[in-house]
Design goal:
The complex is a heterodimer of chains A (about 350) and B (about 400). Helices cover about 30% and strands about 20% of the residues of chain A. Chain A has about 350 residues and is of the alpha+beta class. Chain A has two domains: about 20-165, PurM-like, N-terminal domain (60s Ribosomal Protein L30, Chain: A); about 170-335, Phosphoribosyl-aminoimidazole Synthetase, Chain A, domain 2 (Alpha-Beta Complex). In chain B, helix 2 (about 35-45) runs parallel beside helix 15 (about 385-395). Chain B has a single domain, classed as Rossmann fold, CATH 3.40.50. Chain B has 15 helices and eleven strands. In chain B, about 55% of the residues are buried. The chains are: A alpha+beta (about 350), B alpha/beta (about 400). The interface between A and B is large, with 28 and 48 residues.
Chain lengths: ~350, ~400
C-alpha cells in the first residue's frame, strides 16, 4: 500500500515541517506550499483561486458594508469555539450590526514561528467550517511568520464585505426616546469560558463560549419589516460598554433592569467568585437591538426562534432624560449608574 | 443563583427598610468596616433605602486602599528586577506608586524608574494624546517585567516550583481573610524547602483599626458593621472588649443587600435601646470562635507587628509579619529594598475618606483630577475603594 504523502488531517508533510518556520512567511517555495496546500485547499472558491493580489468581486446594489477586526485570544481553543471560528463570526457579526448580508472575508495570519502545523490546520479548518455555515467566502489573504516569542501562536485579522439590501438607517443617532433595548440571549458567557480555561477554574459544568454568527437573526428581522434603529454587538466591554457607547452617540439615557438581563447561573457564579461584573464581560454571539416598542413582540419572536436565542428579551428602554447616561435598576430596586470599566476587569482580593 | 438571589430580594429589602424607618428615632452614624460591604452598598443602592437619619460611614477595610505607598514602591522595585516573577492579586496591579501619583519620594528615599519613555514633550503639538505617567505593576509588566495575577498564593508557590531558576515573589496583602492562604503558602514553601519563593507582606488586622478609629478625638462612629469574612476566619470574641470599652454596638455582617440591611437594623435597634453588644448577623458563615485551624496556621507563620495604614498612619499591633524562623521568605530582606518615606499628594484626601471624616465626593479632586483611570489615591483604584465605588455608581457622567 502506498504511504500517503500527507497525513489525513494536515495537508503539509508533517515529517518535514511539524512546526511553522520563519521561511513559511518568507515569500519563497515554503510559503507558497503553505498557502496552496493549506489555505487555498481549505477556503477553496473561484475568487481565491485566481491567486491575484486582490479579489475582484461584483456586488449588486449600491450600498456595501465593510469592516475589519483582529483576533488575539489565548488559549487558541476554548470550550465552544476557537480563534478560527471567532475570526469568522466576529467579522460577520460586525457586518450584521449594519444590517448587511455578509459575503466576502479576507484572512490575514500572523503566525509565531514554532506553531505546530497541526494546530494551524485545526484553526484553518475551523475557519473553513464557520465560513461555510455563515455563507461567506474567504477570498483573499496574507501570511506572515514572526520570530518565536513575538506572537501568541497565531493572530488573525479578517476584513469583511457585505451588501446592504434594505433602506433602513441603522445607526446610534437613529435611536429614539421610548425605544426598547433587547438582547438576543444571555450575556458574559464567552469571556468567562476563556477566563475559566485560562485560570484553570473548575466548575461543575463547563462554561461554553457563546461564539456564533448573528447575521441570520438580523436578516430575519429586516425581512419581517422590523424597524431597527440601532444594533451593537456585545464584544469587549460587554453589555456595559455597548450601552454606554450608544447612549453617548445617541445622546439618550438608557435605563436597564438588572433582573431582566439574562446571565446563566454558572457564569454568574464564576463572576461572583472572581469579583467580576457579568455585564462587563465579553460575548461573541450576542447583540443589543434598539427598536420601537410596537415591534418588540415580533422581534422577540424572531430572535427566540433562532438557535441559542431562547433567552432573548427586553432589558430596558431609551429615554430623553438629560444628561445622557446608562442607569441600572439594581436587584433591590434602586437605580445606579452603569459605567464602563476603566481597563481590563481585575479580579479582586477577597 | 442559589444562595445569592435569596439575599437580593427586592420585597424583603423593602420590609427591612420599612422596619428601619419604624425603629429609627434619632440620627445614627454607622461604619461598615469592609470594602466589600461598601461596594455592595453603593452598587445596590442600599443606603438609599435607609432612613435619612442613618448615615453609613465607609471604613478602612479595603486592603488595596490601606496598603501604604512605600509598600507599593517596594513592590514596583522588586517586580522590575530581572529574573523575578512578581505575583499578586488582580486589583493591586493598577495601584500607582509614588512617582505615578505625582508624589515624589522624600530626599534620600528609593526611586524606581519611571515607566514611560519620555519622548513626549508636553509643549509639542503632536505629543501623544493618551500617554500618561502612571507607574504601577501593569506598567512594570508593559516594560518587560514578569508580573502575573494569581487567584491564590498557593499558585505562586507552584510557580516557584516550576521555575527554580527564577525568584518568585508574592504580594501578600489583605486582612485576616486572606492571611490563612498567605500563611499556607509560606508553610508549603518551607516544607518544600523552596529557596526561590518569598513574600512582600502587608497584612493588616481589623480590630486594631477599629480601636484606632474609636480612640481618635474626631471619631463620629456610633456603631460598626464588622466584616463577615474576617470573622469567618477569626470569630468575633476579640470584639467584645472593644464593644465594652467604647460602648459601641458591633454587628458581624455579611455582604449581600439583605445581610447589610439586617446588620444595620440590628445595630440601630441596639443604639435605640442603649445597648452596646457584639451580635452576629452572618451566622450562616461565622461562628463565635471562628476557624481554629486557620487561626493556628496564621499564628504559626506570623507574629503581630505594628503597620502603617495608608491614610491613617502607623497603628500598633495592627499587622502581621513573618516570624523569625520564616525570615528567609521575607522579600523585603531578600531583595534588600530600602525603607522609604513618601509624602501623600496634598490634593488627595483619601486619609479622611478612609477614616470616615468625609465622603468621597466631598474631596475637591474627586472626579476631576482623580478618576479610576488616573487615581491620586488608592481608594479610587480598587473596586472596593469608597472613591471608586462612588465614581462608578454615583457620579454624573462627564463627557470624555
Amino acid at each position: 500500500m502506498k504511504t500517503p504523502d500527507f497525513t489525513a488531517s494536515c495537508p503539509i508533510p508533517i515529517s518535514q515541517y511539524p512546526h511553522v518556520v520563519l521561511a513559511h512567511g518568507g515569500g519563497g517555495k515554503l510559503m507558497h506550499q503553505l498557502i496552496g496546500k493549506m489555505f487555498l485547499e481549505a477556503f477553496r472558491n473561484p475568487l481565491l483561486e485566481t491567486k491575484h493580489d486582490a479579489a475582484v468581486m461584483e456586488l449588486t446594489g449600491n450600498k456595501i458594508a465593510f469592516t475589519t477586526d483582529s483576533y488575539v485570544v489565548r488559549p487558541l481553543f476554548f470550550p465552544g469555539g476557537d480563534i478560527g471560528s471567532m475570526a469568522v463570526h466576529g467579522t460577520v457579526n460586525d457586518l450584521a450590526m449594519a444590517g448587511a448580508r455578509p459575503l466576502y472575508l479576507s484572512s490575514a495570519f500572523i503566525i509565531e514561528e514554532g506553531l505546530p502545523m497541526e494546530t494551524l490546520w485545526r484553526v484553518v479548518c475551523s475557519m473553513r467550517d464557520a465560513a461555510k455555515k455563515c455563507g461567506v467566502q474567504i477570498v483573499t489573504g496574507d501570511t506572515k511568520v514572526v520570530d518565536k516569542g513575538k506572537g501568541d501562536g497565531v493572530f488573525i485579522n479578517t476584513a469583511g464585505v457585505g451588501i446592504v439590501e434594505h433602506e433602513q438607517k441603522i445607526a446610534p443617532q437613529n435611536v429614539r426616546a421610548g425605544d426598547v433595548v433587547l438582547v438576543n440571549g444571555d450575556v458574559g458567557r464567552h469571556g468567562m469560558a476563556i477566563m475559566a480555561v485560562r485560570e484553570g477554574l473548575e466548575f461543575e459544568s463547563q462554561i461554553e463560549s457563546d461564539s456564533a454568527p448573528v447575521h441570520e437573526a438580523v436578516l430575519d428581522l429586516l425581512k419581517a419589516g422590523i424597524e431597527i434603529h440601532c444594533m451593537r454587538d456585545l464584544t469587549r466591554g460587554g453589555l456595559t460598554s455597548a450601552l454606554n457607547e450608544i447612549s453617548e452617540a445617541a445622546d439618550l439615557t438608557m435605563l436597564v433592569e438588572e433582573k431582566l438581563i439574562p446571565v446563566r447561573e454558572d457564569v454568574h457564579a464564576a463572576c461572583e467568585m472572581l469579583g467580576l461584573d457579568p455585564f462587563q464581560v465579553a460575548c461573541e454571539g450576542r447583540f443589543a437591538a434598539f427598536i420601537p416598542e410596537r415591534d418588540a413582540g415580533r422581534t422577540l419572536e424572531i430572535l427566540r426562534a433562532r438557535p441559542n436565542g431562547a433567552d432573548a428579551c427586553v432589558i430596558g428602554r431609551a429615554s430623553g432624560e438629560s444628561p445622557a447616561k446608562v442607569l441600572l435598576k439594581s436587584a433591590i430596586g434602586v437605580q445606579r449608574i452603569l459605567d464602563m470599566a476603566s481597563g481590563e476587569q481585575l479580579p479582586r482580593i477577597c | 443563583m442559589k444562595f445569592l438571589d435569596e439575599y437580593r430580594d427586592a420585597g424583603l429589602a423593602e420590609q427591612f427598610a420599612r422596619e428601619l424607618h419604624r425603629v429609627t428615632t434619632r440620627p445614627w452614624k454607622i461604619m461598615e468596616v469592609c470594602g466589600g460591604q461598601t461596594h455592595a452598598i453603593v452598587k445596590f443602592g442600599i443606603d438609599e433605602l435607609l432612613p435619612k437619619q442613618i448615615e453609613l460611614i465607609h471604613g478602612p477595610g479595603c486592603p488595596v486602599c490601606v496598603t501604604p505607598l512605600e509598600m507599593i514602591d517596594k513592590a514596583l522595585e522588586i517586580a522590575a528586577r530581572p529574573n523575578v516573577v512578581f505575583t499578586s492579586f488582580g486589583d493591586m496591579l493598577r495601584v500607582p506608586g509614588s512617582s505615578g501619583t505625582g508624589i515624589l519620594p522624600v530626599p534620600g528615599a528609593l526611586r524606581h524608574e519611571r515607566s514611560c519613555v519620555s519622548f513626549a514633550d508636553a509643549d509639542r503639538q503632536d505629543a501623544c494624546p493618551t500617554m500618561g505617567s502612571a507607574t504601577d505593576l501593569l506598567s512594570v509588566k508593559a516594560n518587560g517585567g514578569d508580573v502575573r495575577i494569581v487567584y491564590s498564593p498557593l499558585d505562586a508557590v507552584k510557580l516557584a516550583e516550576q521555575n527554580p531558576a527564577k525568584e518568585v515573589v508574592f504580594f501578600g496583602v489583605g486582612f485576616e481573610t486572606t492571611a490563612p492562604a498567605t500563611a499556607m503558602a509560606v508553610y508549603q514553601a518551607a516544607q518544600k524547602k523552596l529557596g526561590n519563593f518569598s513574600m512582600l507582606i502587608s497584612h493588616v488586622l481589623v480590630p486594631s483599626a477599629i480601636e484606632a478609629l474609636m480612640s481618635s478625638p474626631n471619631c463620629r462612629v456610633q456603631g460598626f458593621l464588622a466584616a463577615g469574612h474576617v470573622c469567618t476566619v477569626m470569630g468575633f470574641e476579640e470584639y467584645f472588649p472593644l464593644a465594652a470599652k467604647y460602648r459601641v454596638p458591633i454587628v458581624v455582617t455579611g455582604f449581600e443587600p439583605l445581610d447589610i440591611l439586617q446588620g444595620v437594623l440590628m445595630t440601630v435597634r441596639q443604639l435605640e435601646s442603649g445597648r452596646a453588644e457584639v451580635e452576629n448577623q452572618y451566622s450562616r458563615s461565622v461562628c463565635r470562635e471562628g476557624n481554629r485551624p486557620a487561626q493556628e496556621l496564621i499564628k504559626k507563620i506570623f507574629k503581630v507587628v505594628p503597620r502603617k495604614w495608608r491614610g491613617i498612619g502607623e497603628i500598633p499591633q495592627s499587622g502581621l509579619g513573618l516570624r523569625a524562623e520564616f525570615a528567609a521568605f521575607d522579600a523585603e530582606k531578600k531583595f534588600g529594598v530600602a525603607e522609604t518615606r513618601v509624602e501623600e499628594s496634598s490634593e488627595c484626601m483619601s486619609g479622611l475618606v478612609l477614616q470616615g471624616q468625609i465622603k468621597p465626593h466631598e474631596c475637591p479632586a474627586f472626579g476631576v483630577k482623580c478618576t479610576p483611570e488616573h487615581p491620586l489615591g488608592a481608594p479610587m483604584v480598587s473596586g472596593e475603594g469608597a472613591c471608586a465605588a462612588y465614581y462608578r455608581y454615583r457620579r454624573q457622567p462627564v463627557k470624555i
